[in-house]
Design a protein that fits this description.
The complex is a heterotrimer of chains A (282), B (229) and C (290).
Chain A lengths: L2 H36 L4 H5 L2 E2 L4 E2 L2 H32 L4 H15 L2 H15 L6 H25 L3 H9 L4 H30 L2 H4 L21 H10 L7 H31 L3
Antiparallel strand pairs in A: 1-2
Chain B lengths: L11 E5 L6 H8 L16 E2 L2 E2 L5 H7 E4 L10 H11 L5 H14 L3 H4 L12 H14 L4 E5 L7 H14 L4 E5 L3 H7 L2 E6 L2 E7 H6 L4 H7 L5
Parallel strand pairs in B: 1-6, 1-7, 4-5, 5-6
Antiparallel strand pairs in B: 2-3, 7-8
Chain C lengths: L4 H39 L2 H6 L3 E2 L6 E2 L2 H32 L2 H16 L2 H20 L7 H25 L3 H9 L4 H12 L1 H17 L2 H6 L17 H8 L8 H32 L1
Helix pairs in contact in C: 1-12, 3-6, 3-9, 4-6, 5-6, 6-9, 7-8, 9-12, 11-12
Amino acid sequence: MNHAQLRQKIAFALLGVATLMVVVPIILTIVYIVLHGYSAMSWEFISQPPKNGMRDGGIFPAIVGTVYLIIGTMVFSLPLGILSAIYLVEYARDNTFTRLIKLSVVNLSGVPSIVYGLFGLALFVMFMGFGTSILAGSLTLAIMSLPVIITASKEALESVPQAYREISLSLGASRWQTVRYCVLPYAIPGILTGTVLALSRAAGETAPILFTVAAFYLPRLPRSVFDQVMALPYHLYVTATQVPGIPQNIPFATALVLISLVFLMNVISFVLRAHYRKKRQW
Amino acid sequence: MNLDIEVLRNEILGVIGPANSGKTTFLRAINRMNDLNVNYRQEGTIVFDGTDTRTISETLLRKRIGIIFSLPQVLPVTIYQNVAYGPKVHGTTARSVVDGIVEDALKKAYLWDEVKDRLHMPAPKLSGGQQQRLCIARTLAVGADVILYDEPCSGLDPISTAKVEDAMRQLKADYTQILVTNNTKQAARVSERCAFFLMGELVELSNTDALFTHPRDKRTDDYVSGRFG
Amino acid sequence: MRLTRISEKIIEAAIRLSGLLVIAFVLLIFLFLFANAVGFFRLYPIGRFITGTKWLPISEPPTFGIIPLLLGSIYVTVGAIAVSVPIGVAAAMYIGEVAPAWLRHVLKSLVEILAAIPSVVLGFIGIVWLGPFVASRFGLSTGMCGLTGSLLLAFMALPTIISISEDALASVPKSFKEAAYGLGATKWQALWRIVLPSASSGIIAGVMLGIGRVIGETMVVLMVTGNSSRIPTSILQPLKTLTATVAGEMGEAVTGSDHYLALFAVALVLFIITFVINFLAGLSLKRSRR
């Protein structure tokens, strides 16, 4: 083996080590959470409300709260996101307005989550008077999710062959008809995948809901969109930092439930993507 | 480019010329497909059936002037749905009516016999030549009077090409057709009059026989005899 | 099925409006932050805010100097980038150029899994494991310090850096590599001398995006960096970042008070910083794609 090949072996080994340094902690983190959280997991934990200042009982309301927030986020972000993407891909010309929109999308995606939280507080909780509520929290999370949904939808729309649009227009269909019958149906899988991914991220976020919706100890389930609600990420944060004397496996179990939910959504998104890729005819 | 052309009803007008001579641009200007390109500029008028094409709405114009692209482009749906798409988009939804339109269009495009038993098969599964005739049927189904062809047989084998050309001849009786082609022999076979474009300019327009046997312009002569192209 | 002209026009108007709304949101965010920050600067001179070295919101009188917070953010960011860039770029090289196809799939999935882990979970791991670990290794009284934060942030930045670096490496034209092989270079030599340098502007864009992510991260730093607003002299000390300040103190600040408005000013600084970083990163990405 000559000098150059020896160097290559060493170099590649180092690269491999670096990769291990990335991969091993990932696996260890998951294993760690599973091992420590497993002991507190039980059907009761998932289905019962908390008792005794959270030292007993379960986290059912937090799970419900997170689910409500996911739904709320979807309701507000999905239509707006898809329509914006349709505008950018199908209607926009290459002018300043379009470039501004694209710039805005990029900027929104870089805004720190706590700034969203503060914005949500100022706009939805205070200015619009919704108070800390599912409504305010969902709206905040929705704006945060917008760039992801727009980007994913944009890619999905752009991947539909241009020929379909040409065919439709050459037969005398209008722009909207073309979008509705010849483009959108084929972009839906990509849009769906991107949406589920965006929602899985929203489900795990804490900062945007700190001041807009989250409450710690609400044994009752919310009864309207104007109610506060418990949420898994916030619950983990509080039990990890602010509840003295809590048995440690409770926050571990909460973390376990949270990452299970997030991973479940990721898996769904992945399965959707694979399923539609197979069905594709072009 | 500068043009002044008159197209006669029920003729097949051939348009020949080397690449980049403006043939496709000319063709697509007729049914305003060039408008899809943001950088397109056009001056002057195109008159269709007595009216300036710019004063008619694009959707109506394209209903009456259809276009067949060079690569067979079918939607990834069934044969039936491909042909029915046009009528659907223009408001015809009654099943029996659409059935009739589809059958009629496929017959005129010389495709009915080959597909009548499998109308609900996905269109992409057809051969290239069949797909191209499907495109013709699609255009007929919306009620076009004029059919534009943009090098429609460039990707097809000789047998499929022959079938497409047969369809064109069949259609001559009721439709006006403009055929842009890179294949001078095809133009000679199919068209009655022929236009020669070179570098964005209309060089010569005359009866096909005359154009090929004794062209007026030397450049035409050079092209059709293969000295360049 | 053909909608009337009117309902189609309505739909198209809605579509155009959506584009407008996106711009509106960015402006709104800036506006609300700015309005409240300006309200703050009427009560407290902006000069003292920007150059002040003490952040003591609850003392009498309160001082709102942003330097300790800024330094805190900078410390953890520098620490995180110093760790994640070498490791991330190296891993990207391994995944993209060295690993066999099946392994590449596995590794990419693992990196995606990492990207999916919520930040609060990582903060939690910091509290229960990494913090005590750092404390015992460095003989500190508490592991809630800048280093713990940096390490976790580095971990969080890895997916961004790895995936963008991977893209950058993959978009180097194959002909470069083949030319190198043709001259007798080994795979590594081609990688190190040709591919990596050509991909550098893309990688730099990735690093900038990583920086933007790290500076904007809230929960991890809130939970593990100790939240002390003294100017840190070493990364082994507790510190406080811009993000943690807003997140941690907003709950206590009385609405409309100085403190409340000051936090908006901090958020505005954050917004501007991340805006600039992302803008530069976007420019760099565009340049790398040419």
